[in-house]
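pasting for the record
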Amino acid sequence: MAEKKTRGQELLEKLFFNPKNCWDGVDEKTEADIEDFSRGYRRFLDSGKTERECVIFAEELLRKNGFTAAKDAGKGALKSGMKVYRNIRGKSLVCAVIGKKPLEGGMNILGAHLDSPRIDLKQNPLYEDSDFAFLDTHYYGGIKKYQWTAVPLAMHGIIIDGKGAKIDIRVGEDEDDPVFTITDLLPHLAREQMQKKAAEVVEGEDLDVLAGSRPYRDGKAKEKVKLNVLSLLHEKYGIAERDLAGAEIEFVPAFKARDLGVDRSMIGAYGHDDRCCAYPSLMALLLAASAKKPPEKTAVCYLSDKEETGSYGNTGAQSRAFENFAASLCEAAGAALMRCLDNSSMLSADVNAAFDPAYAGVFDKRNASYMGKGLVLSKYTGSGGKFGASDANAEFCSRVQALMDKNGISWQFGELGKVDKGGGGTIALHAAKLGIDVLDCGIPVLSMHSPFEVISKVDLYTAYRGYAAFLRDA
């Protein structure tokens, strides 16, 4: 016979908030669903290691599911249940399922970003030194520079040749492809290097990619190793050195997404930040699109670019790209854009730092997010005195928490770390600038911004369920 709970025990269960490990109580069917969803996510990661490749993946999926370009919807043509999208210069994307209620009543929006920290080519990158060919680079986003040395790298991107033709580059992903690397100093000679601060162990100017060592067969030619690399590039792609000046070439880790751990409970990969939120956001919108009835409010998924460098540029969240999309919908529906935005709600679907016991000193354990305990609701991000944060209002926080509870979605609250240890931001403040109610809501990540980040499969699936509930019920 079970022992009767004391008044204190009953009160503790009622009043304390203690998120549980989401794996506890997962039945066989749910576990199979988690594994199936994780396989799809790994395919997405391997297909989309750049923002452009992610947009290609997403657009193909949208078209297969009946979405059409938003520009094809004329004034008065929008109807409940319509599925529309806009590809924003090949680097960000926004898509929507038109709801039953008028657009002036607002939209439910999931906003994630597709870019990840990486190594970019400079405009004049190729040079020869000591019979090696190197590619000069400029790192993108916040990285620990030393983590990017002595690992296999793949080259992805596009080049526009002298005739205006776009050439897609993807080298290092297939088994027979060559890979690239950034060299490091052997420990036997690294006594001085090892005395430096971590930020100075490898300087940004030293992150040059090793690209070749074989000279061109011509005794009279100069810079024969560089010439040989250019000759091979010209042979394969028809390009010359001048074509590299405006190219978008990114170097990313060459390895694939893998199950991690003896129990296969985690996924290790490059680009979890923020594709582990972008993918479930997209899939949640596709779920809304496949439902028998349209959502009450128009459901939107916004996948932006440039978040890792401040969301600037005409494909970032600080641009008017999203606002222009919303305006086009409102124009087609005869609705006022201002009222639509004022009545809209967004989950800024971005990751948080998972508590890591190996580095416990930088976390506030009572306010940290924990891997395996579900979605992280972050009222604010920013740094120091909440600089760079939108700081969601209490009313909207309460709404989202209640919605998650109603749908049985496991959630936790979480901050990035101790107040004065650092900080970071998301696209939330840019949505808030438009008058939209917004709350950060994402997945906890270990080793964030490294070449090999780690998430929990159960958190990934919980995010999908939570995002779907938000689009349906918010």
